Amino acid sequence: MRFSIRLILLLVIYITFLPASGSFALPQFSVEYKQSCQLCHQNPTGSGMRSLYGAQFFSYMELPAQPLDDFGKLDEISPLIGKKLQAGFDFRSIFYAAGQDSSGKSFLTMEGDLYLAFTPTDHTLLYIDRNLSGSGELFALIQGLPMSGAVRVGRIVPAYGWRFEDHKAYVQQKLGLVPRAPLSPDNGIEFGFYPMAWEFSAAITNGGFSPVDRDEGKALTTRAAGRTSIGALNLTGGVSYRYNELGRRSPLVRYAGAFFGGNYGTFTYLGETDWMGSDVTGLVTTHTASYRLKPGVNLSLAYDFYDPDLDVKAGTSRRTRLSSELYLTGYLELIPAFYWESDKTGPTGKEFGVGELQLHVWF
Fold it and tell me: Counting beta carbons within 10 angstroms of the beta carbon of residue 216, is it exposed (0 to 12), middle (13 to 18) or buried (19 or more)?
């Protein structure tokens, strides 16, 4: 293992235990607060541009180690351009150092998204997400329907399971739920209901690579979740299903799985397991456990497992990741991380470690 990997691993531990002060806890999204993702995002299924609450109050009063001490200063932190137009962005850049059987060390700009949202009426929103690949979401959102209902039409990422922040999480990577993959984004329509205690969404999309689906195959993606509490324990659970017709090249792909989460005080757990089926049946799972050491500082442990074919001994992949999330301010996050991966799915197995130092800036 290279010296630079060990250095980043030590940095994970060192930054985690840096002294920090403040009186607000680090939230773990909807699991901790028992809230729909639309509390902090313009997209009711989560991810992407933040709402005014997410960009101002949530980012500056809840996340950082040093929250703003004056509510009046929030008025100076506004993503609005006039009364109808809102702007935002996400930027992530990393330095990584990989061990044997991987790709050395390098800098990588892994995310660069620019968001615009135009609200011509109280219940209509036009949303644009432009990223480094020249792709992204582009949809019209109609909201204010009964039971906190909403409809998205255009180029969308259908809601499925958890949207883990780590783009290398197996349930993101192996299912193709990452940018530029065939499942995300896609053209179609999605409707859903997002009250506080539960949510349900269903999307019909092209399910193919081309903007025009010439093979006439379509994809149906559904997701349902519920939230409850037992004393101080907050629980979330749900199921997802995807039926994807891909025409002559690959006639059918099915995904089905369950996702779950719990929060108790400063500890939060998220997990997801999915079965993938076409000619063979595979399984993929991701689990994360996060502990808030102090306001603005989290220590996280993740585990991924992937078996491409449950019926035969074709080899499996495993990944373990240790990271620390340090929210320096309301728009700046530093994430040192180390993971060890064992991939036995190919003709020759390989094992390697990777150290990462990630800078995340958002608004």
Answer: exposed
Instruction: Please give the Cα distance from 186 to 275 (Å, whole number).
Output: 21
pLDDT at residue 251, rounded to an integer: 59
To which residue do tokens 């991987």 refer? Answer: 102
Query: CA 345, CA 185: separation in Å to the nearest integer?
Result: 27
CB 177 within 8 A of CB 158: no
Which residue is listed with tokens 């779950």?
260
pLDDT at residue 66, rounded to an integer: 83
The DSSP annotation for 12-33 comes to HHHHHTS----S-PPP-HHHHH
Per-residue buried b or exposed e for 6-15, using 16+ beta carbons within 10 Å of the residue's own CB: eebbebbeeb
Residue ranges of E strands in 66-184: 80-81, 85-98, 105-121, 124-130, 138-145, 149-156
SS3 62: helix
- Rounded CA-CA distance 130/152 in Å is 17
Is residue 300 within 8 A of residue 290, CB to CB? The reply is yes
C-alpha to C-alpha distances, 159 to 46, 150, 234, 338, 363, nearest whole angstrom: 9, 13, 22, 29, 23
Residue 206 is predicted with a pLDDT of: 86
The pLDDT assigned to 248 comes to: 55
pLDDT along the chain (363 residues), means of 10: 46 41 41 76 86 83 81 80 92 85 77 94 94 87 93 93 86 67 76 92 83 72 94 93 72 85 92 85 92 91 92 87 92 93 82 91 91
Q: Pick 3-362's CATH classification: 2.60.40.1120, 2.40.10.220, 3.20.10.10, 2.40.160.10.
A: 2.40.160.10
Quick one: pLDDT at residue 134? 77
Apex CA 69: angle with CA 68 and CA 71, to 5°?
80
Question: Locate tokens 């192996």: which residue?
Answer: 174
Cα separations (Å) of 310 from 275, 306, 314? 10, 10, 8
**pLDDT at residue 179 in the model:** 44
The label of the residue with tokens 């998205």 reads 152
Would you kindly state where each structural domain of the chain is located, as residue ranges? 3-362
